[in-house]
Amino acid sequence: MAGNTVRKYNYEPQQEERERQRPRIVVDPQKVPYSPFEKVLVAAGVIVAVALITLNVSASVSATSVQRQLSNIETAITKQRNVTTNLQQEIGELSSNSRLNKIAAKEGLKLRENNIRTIR
């Protein structure tokens, strides 16, 4: 008798209800949709990459421009050094003792050895 008084539970209908409640999503492995986060992440990556490429090109152009300016300045310095060297050589030639003695002889001046002092 005790066996008849026990209530029998049927668990199978509840499992069927759970399966009915969850709709199955069929995903095509060839076409996986991107989430909004992935789309934003890819867009941010592309923007950063374009910005870095632009900065790289800009820095390269700037470096080339500065290199050209440096080359022009070095050329100007070299020319000025050549002019300075030529002028120093001309000063040396014009102030040589032999030239000064020739000019003095033309003007009728004579060299007296006792009036010459050597300073070092």
Features:
120 residues; mainly alpha; 4 helices
CA distance, first residue to last residue: 143 Å
Question: Using DSSP, what is the number of strands?
Answer: 0
Instruction: Estimate percent helicity.
Output: 55-70%
Pick out the low-confidence regions.
none
Q: Kindly state the mean pLDDT as a whole number?
A: 84
Order of helices and strands: HHHH
Shape: rod-shaped
Binned strand content: under 5%
Structural class: mainly alpha
Summed up, the helix count is 4
Give a quick precis of the structure.
With 120 residues, the chain is mainly alpha-helical. Helices cover 69% and strands 0% of the residues.
Could you explain the architecture of this structure?
The chain is an all-alpha fold and 120 residues long. The protein is built from 4 helices and no strands. It is rod-shaped, with a radius of gyration of 50 Å. The model has no long low-confidence stretch (mean pLDDT 84).
Q: How do the strands and helices of this protein lay out in sequence?
A:
Elements: H1 2-5, H2 12-21, H3 36-94, H4 97-106
